[in-house]
Structure formats: C-alpha cells, structure tokens
Specification:
Elements: H1 3-19, E1 28-35, E2 43-50, E3 56-59, H2 62-78
Antiparallel strand pairs: 1-2, 2-3
C-alpha cells in the first residue's frame, strides 16, 4: 500500500467516525476524479455524496468537500419539518361538556 493510499484510508476512516453520529445517514460515497489532456494540466475533483447520491458536493480538495457536505447535512436536519404527535382531541362527556 502506498503512502497516498494509507493517508487516504486514514482520512476516510476519520470522516466515517465523525459521520457515524448522524443516524439519518446510511452510507457515504467518496469519488476522486482526475481528468485532463495528455499534454495539459490535470484537474482533480473530490465528490462526497450520501449512499444514494441524492446530496452530492464537489470541490477541488477533500477538506472543503467534506465541510460543505457536513454543512448541508446540518442544514437539512436543522430545517426539517417538525413532526407533531398525533393527539386525539378530548371527547365530550355524556352531558355534552368537555372533560376539562
């Protein structure tokens, strides 16, 4: 295993442990893409997404991609709709008055 692979696996393990606290996240996909012409510059893109690829973030380096992914996940959790409990309204008693 090369030093690049070792460092990458250590960083991914650290991020995985950090994200494990989020119970709504079932998985994580990290993609590293390097593209360019043979006689030109090589462009590296880091993409971080949830397991199903619904929330995807791309950046030129890994740190900002993870930071933006976490920011968006936090925003989604913070702005999620409230779930109110299903409360059954009180029924009137036999004489027609409410019980309170």
């Amino acid at each position: 295993m090369t030093s690049f692979e070792t460092i990458l696996l250590e960083e991914l393990t650290r991020v995985k442990e950090q994200l494990r606290q989020d119970e709504t996240l079932s998985g994580l996909t990290v993609t590293i893409t390097a593209a360019g012409r043979m006689d030109g510059e090589l462009v590296v893109t880091f993409s971080v997404a949830d397991y199903y690829g619904r929330q995807s973030v791309e950046a030129g380096s890994f740190g900002p991609a993870i930071a933006e992914f976490l920011h968006r996940r936090g925003w989604v959790a913070q702005h999620a709709p409230l779930c109110l409990p299903n409360v059954t309204p009180p029924r009137p008693s036999d004489d027609g008055s409410l019980p309170f």
